[in-house]
Amino acid sequence: MRGLGGLCLASVVLLAALAIGSGARAQEEREFCADRPGIGTPACTMAPGRVQVELGLGDWTREKDAAARTDSVELGEALVRVGVTGSMEAQIGWTAFGHVREKDRITGAVTKDSGVGDVTLAIRQNLRNPDGSGFSVAVMPYVTLPGGGTAIGAGDWGAGLLLPMSFDLGSGLSLEVMGEMDAAVDEDRDGRHPAYGGVLGLGFDVGEAVSAMVEASVLRDEDPAGHATEALAGLSLTWQPSDAMQIDIGLNAGLNRDSPDSEVYLGISRRF
After folding, report:
1. How far is residue 38's CA from residue 142's CA, in Å, rounded to a whole number?
2. Which residues form the signal peptide (predicted)?
3. What pLDDT digit, counting tens, does each position of 220-259 carry?
4. 3-state secondary structure of 228
5. Cis peptide before 37, with omega less than 30 degrees from 0?
6. What is the mean pLDDT of each run of 10 residues along the chain (272 residues)?
7. In-domain check, residue 194
8. Quick one: three-class SS letters along 24-72?
9. Containing H/E element for 9?
10. DSSP-derived 3-state class of residue 107
């Protein structure tokens, strides 16, 4: 596990060095646009030669039913985004630590597991307005590489395609839509199955440097071990103390039995 962490860190440093050393800089600085927070993904891309680091400082998810209660905590969920061209960026993501605690509500028995997460590699190609202005749309293929432990690692490779879109409605309002198709890893950690869904979000300005997003998502998962439809509602807030930094906090709530009951998270993003 430590070897994977070192490899991931080396890859991040290499990507950043290549981007910074390229000397390719956008003539005009783009508006700050982070993947965090929220359930969906934006359509904007980084300007060529720019690097953005987005870090989940903490994420706590709770799921409870008649038989068990599961609490999952993730720390150090890192995403590095590098602008490659005027409309394309490369991404690498990795979670440094995850801890899962499950309590049997009938017997009282408790099981615990900890470990690192898998590595995610992605390319986002914007098709219209890469700065996210007006109507913006992108395609984003990604792949997850098995390297994490049993706690938060999937156990096999996975892949998928995201189609994010955003609409500037004016007066500080924006509409975000995202479609998703995945080859998700089976619950038994061997093989893949289809999963698909979408996210709808409404963003609005709260103040000069504070904004909010309300979202709803549905994801259909056709795992051979049992099909499920996850439905979530989310609320997130962002504060931008400077043109190159953002701090966020968010809450997601499950809307049906197939969904986690609640999720709370906090993070920070910085552009270089």
Report:
1. 18
2. 1-26
3. 999 999 999 999 999 999 999 999 999 999 999 999 999 9
4. strand
5. yes
6. 43 46 56 97 97 98 94 98 98 98 95 97 98 97 94 97 97 97 97 98 96 98 97 98 97 97 98 96
7. yes
8. CCCCCCCCCCCCCCCCCCCCCCCCCCCEEEEEEEEEEEEEECCCEEEEE
9. helix 2-21
10. coil
Total domain count, the chain = 1
pLDDT at 29: 85
Instruction: Report how far residue 84's alpha carbon sits from residue 201's, in angstroms, rounded to the nearest whole number.
Output: 28
Residue 108 included in any domain:
yes
Place of tokens 């963003």: 203
- For 122, 135, 145, the CA distances from 191, given in Å and listed in that order, are 20, 37, 13
**Residue length of the chain:** 272
Full domain range(s) for residue 143? 34-271
The beta-strand segments (E) located in the chain are 51-64, 68-83, 88-104, 110-115, 119-128, 135-145, 158-170, 173-185, 192-205, 210-221, 228-242, 245-254, 262-271
